[in-house]
């Protein structure tokens, strides 16, 4: 039996979890910073790092207490090394290093995207995943389409060339005056809206497995706002919105449109892009299953459409494991632990860190 403590602090959740054999969650604690960042309309990195520092000791202690385990009984300590916000990552990595030094337990620096992938191994009841599988990672920071041939064996088929899918949800949510984060709130608004009210354009890209959501966001902006009279002021409004500023009261929504209709039409557009490309990848690469993970995989419309568009098994994590958590980091760490990964105590953070088959060979 291998018991691993996972620690996650790459963005705006401080999380710790204890997972046994990469499959069984003994504890899973997440301290969310959503309320803190809602006032800024998005994640404010400075505030995120400070909140991680305040929460991490309590979160890790709680995870160990919930699991009923002392640090001396752990087999390893795993921590998200990247990708993510540098200041946030540093808090988790330094804490994990301190614990590893104090307990003498092995330290494993884990890729956050690989963590999202292994959230799929925490589903109960679990049926063995049959490789090769196509994996779609859709979160606030990432949109990645991968072919996974075995544990740790990834081929990147494509990804976003601008905004991540979750980021597009968040930006459009802000534009529509919905609370942060936009994803769940757009999903809620969509339930009351007409998804065919608007036909938003989609970009054509050279690589059929790449994504672009920035044009879609701009199209929504054009469609729903009143054209401002002063040219200079309108530009600054647009830039503020694109830079991720909080809900801008100076952006005036057209009075004749329904926010619910825009939300539903936008959600339909994003989901159809994600589903179409993932289904094509699964077909082209003869995948046996489709795995969707990351915050946006909580979206019910995405889940339904993906299942409707393919005969293959479609797996999504339980809702609480779609968004950032540490159980997924401990689950990914289990497979890495088995294959011999051990990190040094001078482990550094990697704010930009792609997930490929050689991810862990680069030192
Ligand atoms: O995986 P995650 O917690 O953080 C990152 O690693 O980025 O994902 C957060 C993202 C946010 O952009 C949020 O709006 C989106 O996931 N999200 C959703 C839903 N729930 C969360 N997007 C669409 N529909 C949802 N139900
Ligand atoms: Zn994430």
Description:
This protein is an alpha/beta fold and 363 residues long. It folds into 2 domains: 3-120 and 323-361, Nucleotidyltransferase, domain 5 (2-Layer Sandwich), CATH 3.30.420; 127-316, ATPase, nucleotide binding domain (Nucleotidyltransferase, domain 5, 2-Layer Sandwich). It is built from 11 helices and 10 strands. The strands form 2 sheets. The protein has a 5-stranded mixed β-sheet with strand order 3-2-1-4-5, with helices on both faces. The longest helix is centred in the last third of the chain and has 26 residues, at 259-284. The radius of gyration is 21 Å and the shape is globular. The two termini are 28 Å apart. Residues 11, 139-141, 166-167, 169-170, 181-184, 187, 294-296, 298-299, 323-324 line the site of 5'-O-[(R)-(carboxyoxy)(hydroxy)phosphoryl]adenosine.
List the helices and strands and how they pair.
Elements (H helix, E strand, L loop, with lengths): L2 E6 L4 E8 L3 E9 L1 H5 L6 H23 L8 E7 L3 H18 L3 E5 H7 L14 E6 L4 E8 L2 E7 L5 H11 L6 H9 L23 H11 L6 H12 L16 H26 L4 E5 L6 H10 L3 E3 L11 H12 L25
Parallel strand pairs: 1-4, 4-5, 6-9, 9-10
Antiparallel strand pairs: 1-2, 2-3, 6-7, 7-8
The structure holds 5'-O-[(R)-(carboxyoxy)(hydroxy)phosphoryl]adenosine (KG4) and zinc ion.
Zinc ion binds next to helix 4.
């Amino acid at each position: 039996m291998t018991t691993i403590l996972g620690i996650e602090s790459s963005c705006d959740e401080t999380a710790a979890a204890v997972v046994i054999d990469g499959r069984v969650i003994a504890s899973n604690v997440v301290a969310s910073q959503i309320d803190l960042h809602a006032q800024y309309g998005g994640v404010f990195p400075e505030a995120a790092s400070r909140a991680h520092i305040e929460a991490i000791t309590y979160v890790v202690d709680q995870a160990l207490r919930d699991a009923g385990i002392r640090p001396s009984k752990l087999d390893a300590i795993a921590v998200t090394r990247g990708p993510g916000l540098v200041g946030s990552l540093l808090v988790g990595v330094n804490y994990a290093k301190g614990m590893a030094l104090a307990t003498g337990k092995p330290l494993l620096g884990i890729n956050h995207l690989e963590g999202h992938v292994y959230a799929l191994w925490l589903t109960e009841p679990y049926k063995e995943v049959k490789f090769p599988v196509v994996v779609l990672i859709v979160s606030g920071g990432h949109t990645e389409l991968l072919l996974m041939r075995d544990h740790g064996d990834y081929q990147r088929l494509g990804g976003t060339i601008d905004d991540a899918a979750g980021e597009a949800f968040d930006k459009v949510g802000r534009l529509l005056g919905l609370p942060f984060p936009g994803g769940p709130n757009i999903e809620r608004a969509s339930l009351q809206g007409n998804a065919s009210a608007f036909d938003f354009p989609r970009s054509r890209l050279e690589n059929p497995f790449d994504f672009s959501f920035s044009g879609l966001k701009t199209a929504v902006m054009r469609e729903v706002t009143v054209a401002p009279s002063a040219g200079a002021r309108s530009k600054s409004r647009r830039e503020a919105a694109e830079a991720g500023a909080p809900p801008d009261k100076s952006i005036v929504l057209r009075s004749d449109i329904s926010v619910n209709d825009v939300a539903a039409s936008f959600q339909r557009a994003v989901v159809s892009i994600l589903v179409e490309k993932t289904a094509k990848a699964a077909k082209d690469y003869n995948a046996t299953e489709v795995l969707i993970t990351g915050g946006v995989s909580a979206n019910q419309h995405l889940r339904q459409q993906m299942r409707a568009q393919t005969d293959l098994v479609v797996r999504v994590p339980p809702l609480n494991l779609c968004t950032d958590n540490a159980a997924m980091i401990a689950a990914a760490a289990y497979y890495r632990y088995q294959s011999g990964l051990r990190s040094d105590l001078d482990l550094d953070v990697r704010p930009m860190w792609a997930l490929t088959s050689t991810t862990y060979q680069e030192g």
